[in-house]
Write a structure and sequence with these properties.
Residues 182-186, 303-319 and 324-331 have low confidence and may be disordered. This protein has helices at 158-165, 254-259, 321-330, and strands at 2-4, 9-11, 17-25, 29-35, 47-48, 54-55, 60-63, 72-75, 86-92, 105-113, 120-122, 133-142, 145-155, 186-188, 194-196, 220-223, 229-233, 243-249, 263-271, 276-278, 294-296, 334-336, 342-343, 350-352, 360-366, 372-381, 396-400, 405-410, 420-427, 433-442, 452-453, 459-460. The chain is elongated, with a radius of gyration of 27 Å. The protein has 3 helices and 32 strands. It has 471 residues and is mostly beta strands. A hairpin with a 5-residue loop joins strand 31 (452-453) and strand 32 (459-460). Helices cover 5% and strands 36% of the residues.
């Protein structure tokens, strides 16, 4: 693996180039600009991103994160016309959230790969001055070869400002126009009464030139890779929005189905009023004794809170073991499951639709996303099911917003004598909607203790209560 420092360059081999983006923290989008020798795009078609995934008949392509890898840009340099001097690679924060900056992104890495060539990595320097976009790198011509240069230059104006600097016309939100009153001139008629005179026709304005829209489209249907995550754009103020999350399983075999194959969906949740922005990324696995610390998602006294939303008290030194345990219980999530199905009309605004005791589906619905913090989706396998793995039951989680985005979270490990698995975390604290994390963490062998979701979105296995389910 070759690592480039800022400003360094390296020659590329022949063939297609794949640039992959990985980031820790808030989501970062990957885009590309096809730039001419004058430093500008030739037209708006030269911007390749989530709304315009291809240019020059596929010579440059945008690929969303999927089972094959993270978000990627693929470039076939030999297929680019001679007037394309370079392909600029850009990372950017959510264009719809002005508060989202690279200060909240703890790590950005781009990996550049070619078949038969040594892979290259570049880690841009930390951006802490409010940058919302960054020029990551560029592929550029030098005679008959192509080279890669690491850049790492930040932009405060985000993707829209950066794209505009390169000549892309970016669509701005339309402002409502107030109607103008028109008064028709009057002339006297033959009998002396005023008579309206038809107004002269006003020539129609030419239609405005189309501009590039940065509004994100739905995700479509995708499946997460092991340890992957994806951001599902949501309007958190939309009271009609329903996020559905289902545990689906087919039993895996006829023998298992005869035994019952009864799995149960548990939704551990932390409301926004109690959620903390912790030092660990949401979905991080922590050990027993973890005390969440961080800034409250909602300010103290916010409407609908029902809780002060205070950050955890870091002064735990000198506390007794019982006091720490009590403090830890206060900072754990509540739960919706077959014995406590929740409600959509009242808090927690999460509801389990029913308890399926045969292979099929159990679903929860989540409304009022602005009042949600973290939701951890877990599966429990009753003792009567035997010792087979959750994967052998065909178990998976499917999350959908009903607006064109469906994310499947599969299981990849075969384990035995495990009765709990934390499958997916839905993080509603993400600025652009909900971030869905693949977790797949299992309980210890032969333990019935439920997982724990802490108020900072971290997960502790084997720390919750024990509650047996019998037929």
């Amino acid at each position: 693996m070759k690592e480039l420092g800022k400003g360094a360059n390296t020659a590329m081999a022949e063939g297609r180039v794949t640039v992959a983006l990985r980031a820790v923290g808030e989501p970062v989008d990957l885009s590309a600009l096809l730039v001419a020798a004058d430093g500008k795009v030739r037209s708006d078609d030269d911007m390749v991103f989530y709304n315009q995934p291809s240019a020059e008949s596929g010579a440059v392509r945008h690929l969303a994160a999927d089972a094959d890898g993270p978000e990627r840009i693929e470039v076939d340099p030999e297929s680019l016309p001679a007037d394309v001097d370079r392909v600029v690679l850009v990372g950017s924060c959510d264009p719809d959230d002005a508060t989202s900056t690279f200060h909240k992104v703890r790590q950005v890495v781009i990996g550049v790969g070619q078949v038969g060539a040594e892979p290259v990595e570049f880690r841009p320097p930390e951006l802490v001055d409010g940058e919302r976009a960054v020029l990551l790198a560029e592929l550029y011509r030098r005679g008959t070869i192509w080279k890669l240069r690491a850049i790492g230059q930040g932009y405060a104006d985000g993707l829209a400002g950066l794209a505009t600097d390169f000549g892309v016309r970016v669509e701005e939100p339309a402002e409502p126009e107030e109607p103008e009153e028109s008064v028709e001139p009057e002339e006297p008629s033959a009998d002396g009464r005023p008579e309206p005179v038809p107004a002269a026709p006003v020539p129609a304005d030419p239609p405005p030139a189309p501009r590039t829209s940065l509004v994100k489209p739905p995700l479509g249907t995708i499946s997460l890779d092991k340890g992957g995550q994806v951001s599902m754009g949501l309007d958190k103020g939309d009271r009609g929005l329903v996020v559905a999350a289902s545990l689906e399983w087919d039993g895996g075999s006829e023998r298992r189905r005869r035994m019952g194959a009864d799995l149960d969906l548990y939704a551990l949740f932390v409301p926004a009023a109690k959620a903390l922005r912790g030092t660990d990324a949401p979905g991080t696995l922590v050990k027993s004794g973890h005390v969440p610390q961080g800034d409250p998602l909602m300010p103290p006294g916010s409407s609908g809170a029902g809780d002060t939303g205070r950050a955890a008290d870091p002064a735990t030194k000198g506390s007794t073991k019982k006091e720490k345990q009590k403090k830890g219980k206060e900072q754990q999530a509540d739960v919706v499951y077959y014995r406590r199905r929740g409600s959509l009309n009242n808090r927690p605004f999460i509801k389990l639709d029913g308890d399926s005791q045969v292979p099929g589906r159990e679903s929860i619905r989540i409304v009022r996303p602005a009042e949600q913090g973290y939701v951890l989706l877990c599966a429990y396998s009753a003792l009567s099911n035997g010792f087979g793995s959750f994967r052998s039951f065909g178990a998976k989680v499917v999350v959908s917003d009903g607006r064109g985005s469906t994310v499947t979270v599969p299981l990849f490990e075969n384990t035995r004598t495990r009765y709990w698995v934390a499958i997916a975390l839905v993080d509603f604290t993400a600025p652009d909607g909900a971030a869905i994390h693949h977790v797949e963490a299992y309980s210890a062998r032969m333990t019935e203790r439920r997982p724990v979701l802490h108020t900072d979105g971290t997960i502790e296995m084997n720390g919750g209560p024990v509650e047996f389910k019998r037929r």
